[in-house]
Amino acid sequence: MDQLTLLRSFVRVAERGSFSAVAREFHTSQPVISRQIAALEDRLGVRLIQRTTRRLSLTEDGHVFLDHARAVIEAMEAAEESVGRTRQSPSGEVRVGVPTAVGMYLAARLPEFFARFPDLSIDLKMRDGPFALIEEGLDLAISITESTHASVITRRIGSARSVVVAAPSYLAEHGVPATPDDLLDHECIVYTRPGIERNWRFMTPSGEKVITVHGKFHADSSEAVRRAPRAGLGIAMLPRLSTADDLSKGRLTPLLEAFAPASVGLYALLPSRRHVPPRTRALLDFLVRDIEEAPLLQTNAETADGVALAEAQASAFD
Asked: In this predicted model, what pLDDT tens digit does every residue of 201-251 receive, in sequence order?
């Protein structure tokens, strides 16, 4: 049996914690993956994975062997990519974790991605909180904060500019704020996830202006905060990438654009490997360039900087 196939199966089972999930990823059956792991264990003469009726876990030997198996696979993928094979047609499944706003945007862009990469599939995990990259077996995570985990590589890939919005119906009834200070007289939709402040930051000719907003509706879900202004509940500060469709169709109106609402950094988090698999690189490159070039997300100057940043990242992950 092909030893590289056995190593690939072992690594993905270790990352996914499931024979069935890896079987679906590799378009085969659960018994086939189980036999491959058993064959690898027989070859090595040790137990790599402890199997119970409820879960899988690596043995001590399995943890030691995992790093070596990854190194072999990464070396082979790097060799293949150097001669153009996997660069032309990356394949496999990419498990990616993203903030809800990024996930909603990415989901709408996937038809174009799959048209470019028909042999790839994506297992998308969306939530507003942090991801445990290693423990959850993710190939990639997008975050608004850097990771402090020693086994995770963090790279800044761009920024997401915010926009203050309200429904036309709300503005017709309550008026349009002309300055950030005017927000104190309006119903503002408050995002209450831990670590997110009620302070909205703006740039004015005299420097940064911080407004502590208030309102009747508070939510710890970014999707609820996105939907609330459409219902006319008040004014919200949201990432542009989650409001692009609503803005273009007139369901929401941008406000206070002259005061440049604050932007947040976007970071790519990857397992600390020397080589990024082609399947992961394909999605990362697509996402970086798509977000940075989208006209509703950035100003012209930011777009130019973003393209340069995307090109720089191509070598940063090698």
From this structure: 898 888 888 999 999 999 988 889 989 999 999 999 988 878 888 998 999
Q: How far apart are CA 290 and CA 4, in angstroms?
A: 34
3-state secondary structure of 176: coil
Cβ-count burial of 263 within 10 angstroms (0-12 exposed, 13-18 middle, 19+ buried)? Answer: middle
- pLDDT computed for residue 82 by the predictor: 63
**3-class state of residue 179 by DSSP:** coil
Q: What is the pLDDT of residue 113?
A: 94
E strand or H helix that includes residue 143: strand 140-143
Measure CA 306 to chain center: 17
Confidence band of 146 (pLDDT split at 50, 70, 90)? confident
| d(C-alpha 197, C-alpha 224), whole Å | 17
Strand-pairing partners, residue 191, are 219
Query: What's the first-to-final CA gap in the chain, in angstroms?
Result: 31
- State pTM to two decimals: 0.64
Q: Tell me the Ramachandran region of residue 7: left when phi exceeds 0, alpha when psi lies from -120 to 50, beta otherwise.
A: alpha
| Close Cβ partners of 270 (under 8 Å, ≥ 6 residues apart) | 133, 139, 140, 141, 152, 153, 155, 276, 280, 317
Helix, strand or coil, per DSSP, at residue 26: coil
- Answer for the pair 276, 138: CB distance below 8 angstroms, yes or no: no
Q: Which parts of 249-299 fold into alpha helices (H)?
A: 278-293
